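Troubleshooting log. The previous run stalled partway through. Resubmitting the same four chains, unchanged.
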Amino acid sequence: MDELLAGKEPRPRERADAARNRAKVLDAAAGLFASRDPRAVTMDDIAKAAGVGRGTLYRRYPDTTSIALALLDEHERGLQEKLLRGEPPLGPGAPPGERLAAFYEAMVDLLDAHIDLVLGAEAGGERLTTGAYGFWRAHVRALLAEANVPEPDVMADVLLAPLASEVYAHQRERGQTSQRIKAALRRLALAATGEGR
Amino acid sequence: MDELLAGKEPRPRERADAARNRAKVLDAAAGLFASRDPRAVTMDDIAKAAGVGRGTLYRRYPDTTSIALALLDEHERGLQEKLLRGEPPLGPGAPPGERLAAFYEAMVDLLDAHIDLVLGAEAGGERLTTGAYGFWRAHVRALLAEANVPEPDVMADVLLAPLASEVYAHQRERGQTSQRIKAALRRLALAATGEGR
DNA sequence: GGCACAAGCGGACGCGTTGTCCATTTATTC
DNA sequence: GAATAAATGGACAACGCGTCCGCTTGTGCC
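Second attempt completed without errors. Output:
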């Protein structure tokens, strides 16, 4: 209980060489994820590319998924910020269906920009237990509740499912454009919230 | 071109011991998938449990996914038959929204009954390239087209996404009942086809 | 019934990935 | 610059994969 009040430096600050290596690792990993099938990147690959030993890598990250997640994190934070405090329709102020549609559109843009990282991050199929996923679910759930949709808890997971990276990647591979996907998701958002008409 | 007309026995019929082993393998695999995390079952496990060698296993199945798929196949065939030629609302005759809702309900029942197999079958995240998935997509696409939904190709994948085994398993783990999930999906089906009202 | 031959079998092998462990090196503090 | 703690990196054991090939067993024919 005391620790909470104690101070601002619970951990004694990162050592200079450690910080340098963290940067090297993230840098090398970003390159690897972008340059080949992100699901095939191994811990050894990253260690070699970063010029550090396996042990050093495992000290910080338990697996490749968590590295992709770390890289993804900053991009997701930007969107999360906009959802909480940005301008409508992404931020508060617009009707829930419109906000949901805007969220879909932003997520598709995010998938497009970082599909390699998202694929790498979901390699284990553990997306649903991620902190980020929890955020998205809470957001969608709140919008659904605001629109008086029944079973918002179930519906939130349902409406997030199409954003799974495999689904999106598969659609793109089959020739769909992000435009068409966005259009379909917008219609879904409006229909699900009863704003269809 | 001739082979098509040639005869009924392109392959010389399966040997007795081979058939016996196939049965042993499928039997043992079903037990394993049911009794532990299906994603953690290995080819070695199945070989040991079935009392056959690794080579024997690989002769027929390239990986655990295909074994789970083989087990799942007969269950899926039943539903596919009903969709094509069964009574409404599952079969032809009912309005598309109702048929989609009925399809959702049947799929949830199928997930409930064989969640272990479905999890085992999707272990690689290759669900979307499966023959079965192609069938579901074609079915949903046809219903959407019938309801004059725009972008039926995109929408079909979108509306199938919530049926991913991980999503369903995750919802059940979070305390949702199949009842509530069915109810939410029914509403989604009606909303997406414009039969909401 | 016995024989020849193809089909089927199974375990050993080589490979690549994982995660851990610890002797050594390096940064920080006084 | 000495003392201490943190960080490093590569060796190691365990594991799963997929293949290969000498041996066994079923099947069709005489």
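Takeaways: The longest helix of chain B spans residues 96-121. Chain B has two domains: 1-61, 64-192.
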